[in-house]
Write a structure and sequence with these properties.
Two copies of one chain form a homodimer.
Chain A lengths: L2 E4 L7 H10 L4 E5 H5 L5 H10 L3 E8 L7 H21 L3 E5 L10 H17 L3 E5 L10 H11 L4 E6 H5 L16 E6 L9 H7 L11 H10 L6 E3 L4 H4 L3 H25 L23 E10 L2 H13 L3 E6 L4 E6 L2 E6 L5 H9 L2 E9 L2 H10 L3 E3 L12 E3 L5 E6 L6 H6 E3 L11 E11 L4 H10 L4 E10 L2 E9 L6 E6 L6 H8 L3 E10 L2 H10 L9 H10 L4 H10 L2 E5 L2 E7 L8 E9 L9 H7 L8
Parallel strand pairs in A: 1-2, 1-8, 2-3, 3-4, 4-5, 5-6, 6-7, 7-8, 9-12, 13-16, 18-21, 22-25
Antiparallel strand pairs in A: 9-13, 10-11, 10-17, 11-12, 14-15, 15-16, 18-22, 19-20, 20-21, 23-24, 24-25
Helix pairs in contact in A: 1-11, 3-4, 4-5, 5-6, 9-11, 11-16, 19-20
């Protein structure tokens, strides 16, 4: 499909916006007129600039408060339209968006609306231009696409068509099914927008909180299906009013925008391929949909990699040892150590000149990479690059294995490790492995349960879309957690089997630990790594015996717990003695405990899931946040 | 009145919160239980800590989902209550807040609710504790104070009373009049909260966007009047859930909180004093209301003061000269120059060791003070200090005048200049004045029309309350302006005569000019100074002849203008030639133009108001913001 985006969706000056849009490989733009009003060049200059960048001006928007007006206002609006047509011809735009009237002067008369739009289309036709009519969700009389289509049909002018916008339809919970019955060539343009569900007035919601398809909660995929079933063959375009995007560097947002459309197309294609032959969902389309490799089937974490050098690498090794990790190997060609316990592999990378060392120089000791096991790593990387992620190829030593990797938002590396290698195959190839000493279980770890990421506010939507489009993950509910310096919003992304979970944390406040960690590490920091254990109470007993320091939990917490949740007195007592936190849902329970932070940076969590508990103990995170107030910032 | 505040209203750990609350001179706290759950000390420790700080624990809150439940749940909740009563006795809290039930299990039966609350009160009474019942705005059955009062009345237990919260009543647009008829001694506690009007679901609105009385738009003053008319004599308390406050240093927020209550009391007192004797509004109360000096009657700007030294002071002097300001005097004892044109006095303060020089060292050339003319400067300063502002007394040289001053939020000084001195009296006393040369008018200035302030996000509510409580100003509408790097929210505060206007600007984005200026200058920066002229077109002509550089306006702006606003072609043509911006309302019009920035910092605006136009040309500010993209920040 031809792909387009409205200039209002990005930050920057008009020139910068166009450059970012072109760099993200869009075919065209919707010109949001306010961007032109303050542009220093002329309409002709703009047209030339767009052309030089290989961009068409697919839509000129918005033309407001036109249809169904008293005669005098109608005449005045026609003059106004002629001025806009002048501009469109100069800049080379052929389609104008006319959105439904919000003026108190509008008359509730579809025939009048049709007659006036007919005249507008007639004026446009004289110049070989076209007009598309769109129902705004807050239009005073016309706010549903069905009404707008009725008016367009009555007007019956070849230069007048319908413009659809997923937000305006889905925000009102209007049914998009009937779109499939509209003649495709009468749909002149399609704007796609997603949004989180909010109980907010629709105008405010629309102007501040839309986001790209795949970042929100609206059913955008079936919406696009219906439009394509109608036979639509025009551009697929994004018109996003979002306060955060307005303040985010436009190059990243433009890439997110493109990823969003590619993902959307591929999701529709997937549904079509699964549809029964002969059904409307399988009928041929007028457009070609993007066809990337399938999202990978992930089978869990293969390893996690820390960047650390010199003393900090030695300290980290000692800390891991205290928690029962054994140093079981050294890389054949690099200053890289492998630590292992149960099913968990941790790598400490101290190799000079590596990506890890760059990360260490920039951010100090930190997580710099992780590996995910999957059946076909190359397909996973190809999926990722098709979805606008960067591939990473590091230097490979003699007889070492090449493991494909990508760069995740914020700069960490995500390796895709062949599942066929099993838990240790990768390390047998690349590491000199020492025989593992027989010894009693210490922490008795099963696997990495989840990673907790601290994200800058403007990385949240980027990460949600990356998780869905590149890694094929689903999103969980959003939970608010009270940090002493602001609320933290917490949302998990995970695969269906729950063998890979990432927990995304953001806060509006700049002063929370989450915001500060994200800032210190370029917008996305792994704040903590959670290990799954079979029997947390005994694991914690053994770790405490070895001197591991955990975040203290207030006795008040345990006094309060039985007033909030049903819990056996004996279990409560053992949690209290061990300093373990507890949560429960209808499906099961969650026991967990946090270590102190390593060097004021990341920390570990040990968890035990019982039954079908599917969260991460959100409420309890406050216990840690209060205890971690160790570097106050002038509060 | 006794003054109290809920711990949830402030950021920080529980100890830090209590210290900030005590420092702001509150009498007591409401303990928000979550703050205690993660507190490392015991209930007894907390009680001691509060006592040491001179604070009572006036309320323990919240106790949820209690009344009108099936028997088994009711019994369980009684056990839960006993555990909370244990805590209350240990910490020394005598009143518990029980808020109306939000559980799906609640039964719609006021008699059952009354019976169960009776039992709860009976349990409380055995320990000499009390229970207050409050209607949550989102309570499942009970959400109006009238319903809650009906239940309390039915229960008829001396240890059970009503708790009122202005937010829960006013957010539902419920009528508070009937509160006056409730027996005052049955109202056990009063929580006051304000909020901006939002079309958002009430739970989300309540949990994230409340603010202190005087910062929002709810009719909190008449609400408090009704409660006092009922004969209420308990604490006046604040319970504010606000995402920004949670991330703001708690000392400042605690001072805002106290200022809010003092202002609220004084507003009620003012209404009572104006009420006709014999009416309920004039009947004696059970409490004493705060009685500060009246807010000052302001008569306009006397002067504006810049901090600048060395080359930057000389550059600034030359720049002012180019715009037609004459250097008319030098301070008798300080390195301070006076520039004047028409009715505008500008001071350039280069005095070493002064507050201005501290400001210059910290922030470079910038506005550091202004003077407002008023009939009684001392009363104005006394009003300000009564309302928790700091007084400033600088060094005074021989035979110089003492001008009382206060520190405004963010650190600038606000002088109150005796109106009796006239325009020049102050300067005749303190300055060696040179004879003003006869010369033709250059910019032909009348007065300072307004100051534009860039505020950090967390300074907005602080400034609104300061403007209302200390300076006696009113607030205008909030307008969104598109900066290329984010939306800027713009709101004016002004006196009734409009001789003093301040325009407050904030943005959520960290990357707008507004946010960056605020950050660079400690949270509140004067970004621009607007001068009123009688004939802007000729003023601009003369200024351009003298080489003054203005922000360029796109020709597209003038092409668009007549499609948005009715404007005479001749006026449009002269605006286009002069590069002047235009706005109009039903009451008049506004012509204005911005200079380039001085040293990348502040700039001037020249304005002409026609008729009753009462805004500041909000939409046009985008023209300037686009043109001022001179130091991009990695977009």
């Amino acid at each position: 499909m031809r792909r387009s985006i409205a200039t209002v969706s990005l930050s920057g000056t008009l020139r910068e916006k166009l450059e970012a849009i072109a760099a993200a490989r869009f075919d065209g733009i919707e010109l949001f007129e306010n961007d032109f009003t303050h542009f220093t060049g002329s309409a002709r200059d703009l047209g030339r600039m767009a052309q030089d960048l290989g961009l068409g001006i697919d839509l000129f928007q918005p033309f407001r408060d036109f249809e169904a007006m008293p005669e005098a206002l109608f005449r005045k609006s026609l003059d106004r339209a002629e001025r806009k047509f002048d501009l469109m011809q100069e800049m080379g735009a052929q389609l104008m968006l006319c959105c439904s009237n919000t003026s108190p002067a509008v008359i509730d008369d579809p025939d009048l609306a049709a007659a006036q739009l007919y005249e507008l289309a007639e004026r446009a036709a004289r110049r070989n231009l076209r007009v598309g009519f769109e129902a705004l969700a807050w239009g005073r009389v016309t706010n549903l696409y069905g009404q707008a289509w009725d008016i367009v049909r009555r007007a019956n002018h070849p230069h007048l068509g319908l413009i659809l916008d997923s937000f305006h339809t889905l925000s009102l919970r209007d049914d998009p099914s009937a779109i499939a019955d509209i003649p495709g060539d009468k749909i002149f343009f399609l704007q796609m927008a997603d949004a989180p569900w909010m109980q907010l007035d629709v105008l405010h919601w629309a102007r501040h909180h839309r986001n790209f398809p795949g970042q929100g909660q609206l059913p955008v995929v079936p919406f696009l299906q219906r439009v394509l079933e109608a036979g639509y063959s025009g551009p697929l375009s994004l018109e996003i009013f979002n306060d955060v995007f307005r303040g985010t560097p436009n190059r990243r947002i433009a890439v997110d925008a493109m990823r969003s459309l590619l993902h959307l197309e591929s999701e529709v294609r997937k549904l079509r391929e699964a549809a029964a032959p002969g059904t409307p969902a399988a009928a041929p389309l007028q457009v070609e949909l993007f066809s990337p490799p399938a999202a990978p089937e992930l089978e869990g974490f293969s390893f996690l990699e820390f960047a650390a050098q010199g003393e900090s690498a030695a300290d980290l090794g000692r800390w891991l040892g205290q928690m029962g990790f054994e140093r079981v190997g050294r890389h054949r060609s690099k200053a890289v150590d492998l630590y292992r316990q149960g099913g968990v592999n941790l790598i400490v990378n101290a190799q000079p000149g590596s990506v890890a060392s760059q990360r260490f120089e920039a951010h100090g000791p930190s997580v710099c990479a992780w590996g995910l096991r999957t059946g076909s790593p190359l397909a996973a990387v190809n999926r990722a690059t098709a979805m606008c992620s960067q591939r990473y190829d590091g230097p490979i030593g003699p007889s070492e294995m090449h493991v494909p990797a990508i760069v995740v938002p914020g700069g960490n590396l995500n390796y895709f490790v062949p599942a066929a290698l099993g838990e240790m195959g990768l390390f047998e190839a690349d590491f000199e492995l020492a025989p593992v000493p027989e010894q009693p279980a210490v922490a008795d770890l099963q696997h990495i349960d989840h990673l907790g990421l601290g994200l800058a506010l403007d990385q949240r939507d980027t990460w949600v879309l990356f998780s869905r489009a590149v890694l094929g993950l689903e999103t969980g509910d959003s939970v608010n957690i009270a940090d002493p310096f602001g609320l933290v919003r917490n949302q998990a992304v995970f695969n269906a089997a729950r063998s890979v979970r990432l927990v995304l944390n953001v806060s509006d406040s700049q002063r929370t630990r989450t915001a500060r960690d994200a800032r210190q590490q370029g917008g996305a920091a792994v704040q903590h790594i959670a290990f799954a254990c079979a029997d947390l109470v005994s694991t914690v007993r053994r770790l405490r015996e070895r001197g591991v320091a955990f975040v203290p939990v207030s006795p008040n917490y345990y006094d309060d717990l039985p007033t909030r949740l049903d819990i056996e007195p004996a279990l409560l007592q053992s949690l209290r003695e061990a300093g373990i936190l507890y949560d429960a849902s209808a499906d099961g329970a969650y026991l967990h405990i946090y270590t102190e932070r390593f060097d004021g940076r990341f920390f570990f969590e040990f968890v035990q899931r019982i039954g079908g508990y599917d969260g991460q103990g959100g409420f309890n995170a406050s216990a840690r946040m209060v205890a971690q107030v160790d570097d106050p910032v002038g509060h």
